[in-house]
Amino acid sequence: MASVPFPPLFLCSNPNSLALGSIVSEKLRFGGCRAFGLGTVRKSRRRTATSFVCKASSVTFRDLDADDFRHPLDKQNTLILRAIPGLNELGKALLAIAGSVTEQIMLLENIGTSVLVSKNQLSELHQLMIEAAEILNIEPPDLYVRQSPVPNAYTLAVSGKQPFVVIHTSLVELLTRKELQAVLAHELGHLKCDHGVWLTFANILTLGAYTLPGLGGFIAQSLEEQLFRWLRAAELTCDRAALLVAQDPKVVISVLMKLAGGCPSLAEQLNVDAFLEQARSYEKASSSPVGWYIRNAQTRQLSHPLPVLRAREIDEWSRSTDYRTLLKRAIQTSAV
């Protein structure tokens, strides 16, 4: 999900990008990295290009705030960071110094190695992004398509001046158009929630703990674990953003299922309901004391929740009063 400045968290930098190693070079990813089991999905056959006819929804969340759909754990950790005296000012100062340089580096990299999507270039993809951004009430960032066999997407917004989203060609091949738009909405969720900025602030706090004598290392390790928990909660938040655009939980769950074990040749045989049943069986298997311990040991250092857990979470939220209230408000807004 992110590349961070100290080795214990340097887990998932883009293999095709510059290794910035900076506290402001946070790439927020949809699918995690190969170390987390979402590895390369190779095409066994080429699919015929299809039309992008995919109007997500006629509704628009014109007054949507990030906290309207933010996951409770994401909200809790963000509030904690906001309450730390001086952290916001220090973070903004560092972003002001290094942010513009980092953004320029990434801009040149993207222009040099990817295809910039626009009205005149991959116009259907451009329209999917415009529609998703309109629904979520956010300015659409630049969108790039990059050649890669690893199905993934990520976003970066250092100082908010030149945010962008990158999607890999293998992801385009793997997903339907509705699913692809859900991925774009997920990345827009990161931008709307300022996850990159708050992640930078969290890294500053953790780095500061490492400099403390005595118990500094222990404190820093505890902060790292808390940071990972927040990163996982941030992903759940952005899955909710994807659902707000798709307005069909099966679309979002299908994306997660395909990232877990899909490929173009098997896509039509995959079953969302069976994947949800798999998620329930995982919950049952990990409910015992031993299962709980194993589950926590396996996930404590992950920046992304397991796909089955994300599927269960989005399925539950789609049935919640909060989600239905948001949809009702959106319908009322669009009718004005």
Provide a concise account of the structure shown:
By secondary structure, the chain is mostly helical.
List key phrases describing it.
single chain; mainly alpha; five-stranded mixed beta sheet; 5 strands; globular; disordered N terminus
Instruction: Give the beta-strand count.
Output: 5
Shape: globular
Q: What gyration radius follows from the Cα positions, in whole Å?
A: 19 Å
How much helicity do the residues have? 55-70%
Q: What is the H/E order?
A: EHHEHEEEHHHHHHHHH
Main sheet strand line-up: 1-4-5-3-2
Number of domains: 1
- Give the biggest beta sheet: 5 strands, mixed
* Individual helix count: 12
SS class: mainly alpha
Q: Would you tell me the overall average pLDDT?
A: 77
What can you tell me about this protein's structure?
This protein has one domain (7-334). Helix content is 55%, strand content 5%. The protein has 12 helices and 5 strands. It has helices at 72-83, 87-113, 123-135, 169-174, 177-192, 195-210, 216-246, 249-261, 272-285, 289-299, 307-318, 321-334, and strands spanning 28-29, 115-116, 142-146, 153-156, 164-168. A 5-stranded mixed beta sheet has the order 1-4-5-3-2, sandwiched between helices. Helix 5 packs across helix 8 and helix 9 (272-285) crosses helix 11 (307-318). Residues 1-26 and 33-54 have low confidence and may be disordered.
